[in-house]
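Notes continue from the previous slide.

Worked example: a multi-chain complex. Inputs as given:
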Amino acid sequence: MDKFECIKLFNQIARLGSFTATANELNMSQGAVSKKIAWLENSLGFTLFHRTSRKVSLTSAGKQYLKQCHELIEKITITEQRLKNELSQVVGELKISAPSAFATQRLAIPIRDFINLNPKVSINVSVNDKQVNLYNDDIDIAIRASNLKDSGLKAKKLLDHELCYFASPDYLKQNGTPISHKEIAHYHCITYSLSNPSNVWYFNKEKYTVREIFSSDSPEMIVNMAILGLGIAAMPKWMVQKHIDKNELIEVFENVEKHSLPMYAVYKNEDYLPFRIRAFIDFLASYFESEKLK
Amino acid sequence: MDKFECIKLFNQIARLGSFTATANELNMSQGAVSKKIAWLENSLGFTLFHRTSRKVSLTSAGKQYLKQCHELIEKITITEQRLKNELSQVVGELKISAPSAFATQRLAIPIRDFINLNPKVSINVSVNDKQVNLYNDDIDIAIRASNLKDSGLKAKKLLDHELCYFASPDYLKQNGTPISHKEIAHYHCITYSLSNPSNVWYFNKEKYTVREIFSSDSPEMIVNMAILGLGIAAMPKWMVQKHIDKNELIEVFENVEKHSLPMYAVYKNEDYLPFRIRAFIDFLASYFESEKLK
DNA sequence: CATACACATTCCCAATTGGAATACCAATAA
DNA sequence: TTATTGGTATTCCAATTGGGAATGTGTATG
């Protein structure tokens, strides 16, 4: 027996004052109504209705219970409705995790635009260069360079960055600036350990196995090591542009078709995805898509 | 599927973080737990848990739903408990209907004593000489002279009043004061229409069919008509004592064994009778019992 | 007194439920 | 990589439950 149904039935009957009328209104047999109320009364341990041969009326306990149930049904229904609306409306809080450079340099504008378009959503960005656990840290969407599939996660590719290769002025002064990418083997390379394999770089679609002097899963760390003159590293240009501008880093292999680094929006796989998540991912994807065309 | 059970299950799981642990704790199979939650999620239309291979965690919707459910389940449980307690404790409001004379002259003291003994009960007395409908007027206990069984009512006899016969001084002056009850046939009689039959009076256990000049279902009305000199009437002594004292009425047939008028406490028949009702009726019955012995 | 009306109960069949076993999936260990 | 483990989902079947129709019971009504 569904207690909820019984309680709704109880409400109806209290309103209509009759089992039969309620049964008709709800298209069920009168016997079923009688049985359900009997079950409810029995499971509660007190009587809800006085029965006379002509009508039913609430007992004093029934009256008080009715009041409480009324509130119960109303509140729970409202909550269920609201939560269900999240599946079709962009409302609620959206928690995003993104690497620091990407967050500050690529995410600010689309987030602003998204919020302006969807004023009922609120966004919280957690800047974190480590790979967060979406479940433990309660994150809706993580932006990642690697499409490493965690348990039950889904990923949507947002963009492909052509990589920019760079080293510090000091390093190039000491080791000479390479003219062609084919000289790569003569240089120390700083690699991203999450690339697989990390020590294989592509130029003009050709594989080059490089001398891996240092590797890390942290882009920031890689950039820092390059600035310190450890060797040649590769990262998306937006991540190091400011260092190039300040002459802390110098770009090399400018005129070669390089390997690209994809960025993904990773999110939990659930049967009913809150619409704010779907909407934000789609918005981001189309934002970067249109940006690429410019 | 009982939504209530499912919600309680949902609470448990949220607390324990595991379907299996919950199943063990509640002595049910893990499959059943899985099915119930699946049913609940499906009927709600949104996902409550993220499932990973090692544990389950609440979705954002799940978290909000949990909070709401927690609060509401708690409230309804408390209400159910409180209402159930009314079956074993003397608490709540007790609505009593009683005829005016009986209320003021016989009920005041036992009610005071009952309240002193049971401070958590509150009593409301509705004074009404007409026969009220316990269902329509929302009365718990009605005090009545007649054991007229209404629909589904129960009755407990509280006491037997020996009747007192009386007439106005004027009436007796005009018609002569009867010496013996055997003269009753010569007098006009005022009868209580709810007695059955109303025109048969008993003296020393003998039947006398009387001349019924007026009858009413209202004791007050009967007393008034007697005062106005219409004839001889019969009522419990406590009802007319004050008129006798003021010489508005004079008692007759003092030394005969007379018919008695029973008084009943009438109450609704319900499966689980709130204890305050049972307690008050029992208290009244034993009060009048002990009074009789004095 | 017969009738009508309303709730309770019974009987029976279809639908649902729950348990046990199994499938499945991901994290961990080897 | 592979095997193992710890967890949820699914499947299958027996048992229970639930609902409808008919019937029973009790009470107003005319």
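Summary box: Residues 60-85 of chain B form the longest helix (26 residues). The two ends of chain B are 62 Å apart (CA to CA).
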